[in-house]
Amino acid sequence: MKEEKIKQNNSEESDLAITKRSKDYSQWYLDVIEAGKLADNSPVRGCMVIRPNGYAIWENMQKVMDKMFKETGVVNAYFPLFIPISFLNKEAKHVEGFAKECAVVTHHRLELDADGKLQPAAKLDEPLIVRPTSETIMYDTYSRWINSYRDLPLLINQWANIVRWEMRTRPFLRTMEFLWQEGHTAHGTNEEADERTLQMVNVYKKFCEEYMAIPVIAGMKTESEKFAGAVYTTCIEAMMQDGKSLQAGTSHMLGQNFAKAFEVKFLDQTGERQYVWQTSWGVSTRLIGALIMVHSDDNGLVLPPKLAPTPVVLVPIWSSEEEKAKVLPVASTIAKSISEKLNINIKVDDREMRPGPKFYEWEKMGVPLRLELGPKDLASNCVVAVRRDNGEKEKVDQDKIIEYIPKALQNIQDSLFNKALKFQKEKTKKVDFYDEFKKIMDGDGGFVLAHWCGNARCEEQVKEETKATIACVPFDQKKEKGKCIYCGEESEGRVIFAKAY
Amino acid sequence: MKEEKIKQNNSEESDLAITKRSKDYSQWYLDVIEAGKLADNSPVRGCMVIRPNGYAIWENMQKVMDKMFKETGVVNAYFPLFIPISFLNKEAKHVEGFAKECAVVTHHRLELDADGKLQPAAKLDEPLIVRPTSETIMYDTYSRWINSYRDLPLLINQWANIVRWEMRTRPFLRTMEFLWQEGHTAHGTNEEADERTLQMVNVYKKFCEEYMAIPVIAGMKTESEKFAGAVYTTCIEAMMQDGKSLQAGTSHMLGQNFAKAFEVKFLDQTGERQYVWQTSWGVSTRLIGALIMVHSDDNGLVLPPKLAPTPVVLVPIWSSEEEKAKVLPVASTIAKSISEKLNINIKVDDREMRPGPKFYEWEKMGVPLRLELGPKDLASNCVVAVRRDNGEKEKVDQDKIIEYIPKALQNIQDSLFNKALKFQKEKTKKVDFYDEFKKIMDGDGGFVLAHWCGNARCEEQVKEETKATIACVPFDQKKEKGKCIYCGEESEGRVIFAKAY
Lengths: 501, 501
Prior knowledge:
2 copies of one chain form a homodimer.
Chain A (H helix, E strand, L loop, with lengths): L1 E2 L21 H11 L3 E3 L6 E3 L1 H20 L3 E2 L5 E3 H4 L3 H7 L5 E9 L5 E13 L4 H11 L8 E10 L4 E2 L7 E11 L2 H21 L5 E5 L11 E8 L5 E11 L1 H6 L2 E3 L5 E3 L1 E8 L1 H10 L16 E5 L4 H22 L3 E3 L6 H10 L4 E5 L1 H5 L2 E6 L5 E5 L3 H26 L1 E3 L3 H9 L4 E5 L4 H11 L2 E6 L7 E2 L6 E2 L2 E5 L3
Parallel strand pairs in A: 1-9, 4-8, 17-18, 17-19, 22-23
Antiparallel strand pairs in A: 2-3, 5-7, 6-7, 8-10, 10-16, 11-12, 11-24, 12-13, 13-16, 14-15, 19-20, 20-21, 23-27, 24-27, 25-26
Helix pairs in contact in A: 2-6, 9-12
């Protein structure tokens, strides 16, 4: 069992240096999380505490996505945390996929033993598992809710916590407990379920690109990488700064697999009883891991303005009480005007500290735009604006600040996306020879577009020899004759290989 | 073990009659939940499924309260679902309060046995409990986050699911798993923690009265009713239509009890290490139970406009295709204008059904205001508006509808509150003799204002003999000499006795 832990740190005010990416990428990631006050270790192995700064990002993500889901007709509901052990066994592939990593509740009471230690007491007749995903418990209910074609489509989402007993954990990217949303729909036709599967992976793509400023490749998972119980799995894949791929969201076409296992049937227009067609789709707090790994730098967190809990901070500067008395009221007026006219969350940092450490702190926290206001700026009726993403400074007329802010934030948002897209394109290579393939995977990594014959054995061998897996078969794959990178057999097109998180 | 279950019902379209309150209040409650599509039974004992209509009410509650909390400086975070068993044992009263009702995770894997049945495998070194409340896991973390007075106050809330292994369950009111928020604050002085305790119970009072339209009595719990581990507990109590009291929210002053158990210390301004003073406070999906029990009637759910997922429904009426073609476009224009100008969620029910069953359905779902638009209304440029709370009908000029709706909704909101307040006042009686007290508790119930000497033994005896407990010692209790309703000893004021949910 291995757990990558954030360093324990006893002081909120500390300014521990952040490890450079080039020196130790894994440690850099953990340092950014600590410096940005995003998460902390917990006394429970593999579970993290999501700190207010991290949770506020999740709240922003939820707000945006929840609206996007609802615009497609989805409604929210809530299903039980616990699942009877027998439910898992109803879909053969599903149980294979999840049985090895389930937290199992076996007792419902604690009693003190002779040594004064609390021990489990009152054994359950049937143990319960803590949901690793909710297909089984939800579809058991769907079987009672759905009777006729008039009950379809059923489009339900839930925001919930999930537990998977992972052996190797890393904050946000892979934790034993995580937060997510899981959408579960039921349809009257195969086609409609196909469409919904695609629709939702496209919602995720839009969210990642427009809000997270992360370019993603949408495509299909291979048979060996698909969800346990699905007919096929679609996904979006994002490239991290270390050249690895991160699966940022998945949308599964379940066909009638679960409908048959849970007897979810409906009376169609012709009066015939049919099994429904289903989809499920989800994203999790893992997205915060992606956000960190794509945009942040050696100075700490970098956040896209659209998801930053505090898009703008204003740091007033003074070196005497007299200056302070002049600067603070103006700072407060400017901040109030930005907050009220633009409905933007802005903080005024008027703590009794030197400005340097304040700048440094907000930089580590990833605040996209910093405004500085000192006595000189007061005299020239200006504010100094500093971008977190590229460090550029600009003097802005105080009268123009209301026009300036939204443009500057949009610029930052666009720059972040374009920078990430440029990086992704540069690190995506067409490769036709296995030697070159291996060299890339041994080196800087990235996405490798290579031909694959479709045989799971080749996929397996490549994984064993290079640790690279097939991230996806991109939707925009070109028809192109070629030879499998591993076995040389005929192939119809290139797929994306990468090392994966 | 007893579980009050919603009737299983195989059809979404059914119009099962709702049991009258006068006939069977408990069954009425379950029928309203079913007819309003608020919740359903689940295959896990004591756990319910919160259906989209019920969850949408919870979402509205969350939105309002989250804003109210944040306005007092609170931020959200997320702590682990699991708590090491040893943590619970650190605060003596706390373990007493919760050990008997904990779900215990003992294994982290499932394996098939010889009969092909899944069985728990891979035993944990230390069992974990599923949080019944999060004081212990949070304050363990607080002990690392808090170092100096500059880290205080720490004001954190979390929205989470909670598990308490209750023997007797009832949808929303008492379920094994429920959703809630729990605020946990740490302060540098006793006074500040006192103030926060009071501040939050007042936030709850404001929310209940202004949004839920439920009048509540705020006060103190007695020693025997207080939270396990608190110095004192404040609460709000609401009267249900059966005369019982429902504890709608609690705010606890924890003093230094948990700080001492978890070593949460800070360096004060004088350089001395002190334990922090703490509070915790919460409300849960139980509030939905209160909402149902206070306002609903024999025709089903009644919702206050401020929390109704759909405050207005528009039912177009036609008896020929020709009429339909005329009515529908106008209905749609009116709905669009209401939605856009007033930002109110409105549904147009254009299903191919007769209007009667539609009216009946929306009535059962508690929609506060129903608009009807038929050919005659079209001719007279009118809309008919029908209030859910009192059935009053009104013809409204189509040109005036935008002015009319907000006023009508506010009227409904106010009427619901006033009706509930009138009921509460009528069923609150000053009682000085134990015979009368017993008669009331044997009969219609209600709040009884009676003198109590402060002795826990009298409280216990009264409970045993009448099932009534002390709902609270109201904050606005008048100083008044009197004699304890049970023992006749001197008393300084009246407390509220009631049977409780």
